[in-house]
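I'll show a sample.
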Amino acid sequence: MERKAAAVVSEQALQVSLELIASVFSTTAKSPVEPEEVPARIEQTMGLGRNSWPLAAIRQMADAFLAAADGRKKSPAYEMRWLNLCGFCLRPGFGYPGDDFRLEQTRRVYASGLTHGNQVQCEIDWWIFWGRAAGGMNRNQQADVYQRLAGSLLPRGNQKPQRINESLRREMWRTASSLELLPIGTKTELGDALIKRVKTGDYKESELWCLSRLGARKLFYGPGNLVVPPATVTRWVEALVKVATAGDALASMARLTGDPTRDLAAATRETVKQKLQAMPKADRLLAVLEGEAEDEQTLGRIFGEELPSGLVWTE
């Protein structure tokens, strides 16, 4: 990742926003506003919608949230808002000076777990948080996160699948699929489970995005030796070419890299190309397939949401 020019906010506006965060999540003083009002207040102060908040500003806000982490324990509403906004300000977990230290600070939050774990929305925001921050974790930390997810996503032996809220299950899958440092065998298990659902027609659109991350030829931040082998992904592609809405996943899985250890066979790529040509927004999908440079919209699809203003992906 590298930084590019982005919107500028005044030092005064940023300071007011930092003070608001500190006061709302203070454990010793009454909050000046309700936690759900914080995003709108910051947008108003900054004069910018949240997707335009510049990288330098959101990292300073992340520092303020991390310093006030205990304030999330005041109520479910505080925990939801803290997880949502702190994760937003930390995404994608790397790309700015000091992010390694910030991610180390989040480990204390991870170790203590959810305070209001009996609230489904808190659970949902918990996994969104870790999916957003995953790129800043090391291999062991990602493996630890996955261990907390594995029993829910891939029950073993005679274990019955847990009954889980569908929105929560979606975010758990999205987080697991964002862990690019997992072993290839684990990614294969996850992908195979999703493909099984695709074949039976019992799948969600979000699971196609998960497959696009698990089977990508070019990882968002992980090394090339953790790309799932072409033979495995070819099986997945053969199932997905029958799915009308799988364009992004197919383009990601069959993308041309020029590396024979990662690229799918020419015949498979040609099948995908013909499929993409008949889809809406074919030009964009074909550009991804041919390995051309990503625009911000394409990067947002890869990551799952817009990247911070001022951050760009470099080869």
